Amino acid sequence: MTSPLTALGVSTPILAAPMAGGPSTPALVVAAARADGLGFLAGGYKTADALAAQITEVRSEGVSFGVNLFAPNPDPVDPEAFRRYARAIAPEAEAYGVDVLAAGVVEDEDHWPDKIDLLLSDPVPVVSFTFGIPEAPVIAALRAAGTVVVQTVTSSAEARQAAEAGADMLVVQASAAGGHSGTLTPRHIPASIPLIDLLGQVREAVSPPLVGAGGLATPDAVAEALRAGAAAVVVGTVLLRADEAGTSRPYRAALADPARRETVVTRAFTGRPARALRNDFTDRYTHLAPAGYPALHHLTGPMRKAAAAADDPERINLWAGTGYRHATAETAVRILRRLAS
Length: 341
Prior knowledge:
By secondary structure, the protein is α/β, with parallel strands linked by helices.
């Protein structure tokens, strides 16, 4: 099946993943387009106004691009489990003058209605969703506005739901991916299925074009995913040290640190399963963290922000996929063109 990306001028089937929290800058999105691919602005954790400003910045460069949103998929935290966890991590936060014991439970939709209104009133070429599947009328409205709709899935069952809702393309995310899992059932950590096998399972279940994601950091890995039936691939971790990425200084240093030898899947920072480099915080609190996104994200956020400012890599979320050793400090165009080779 022809990929909808072809009509957008995407001649190299390598996309730059949306990495919320800072790494995915407008400059990184533009660089992906300059490499004949496509980049995504990360709408997560932003207001609609902040996202609109970044859309305007990328549009001014005259390139195709996408926007990613966290779709609502409520996973309320147990209040008592939340309080126990706050007490457990309190000493870590206190080191930076942050009082997590005074924090209340925050359950929000990440400005979802405002961002959907923005994307319908000022359509962009591509919109992708993760964490949840929007209601079918939302997808239909975006498609009617001329937007290609992409949905992240982690299993063939999720792929069937996304196809039935009307998604044009599916990002098939394997467990090797860095950052948050896009699973629709975050209380259950997805099985560790190799991407090639997962692509095959999803291909048997649905017809929309597939985009492979998870652990893709070398030209050989990219080629294998394309041979397995992916119309394109999306890469994130391998771009974290790129010149254009907004990755923080301690995060960059950790990715290059030869002493960092392992990634783990943890709920310790946000209450939702995510793959990260091991650090002191994941070692101490992964087994204690309850499920509950975004409550834990808001609980630990001030501590993580303060730790990043202090160049402390042990109290920040070092999201990274299994291919993190291949992340290099150079331009994104060079990285993406090498992957395409």
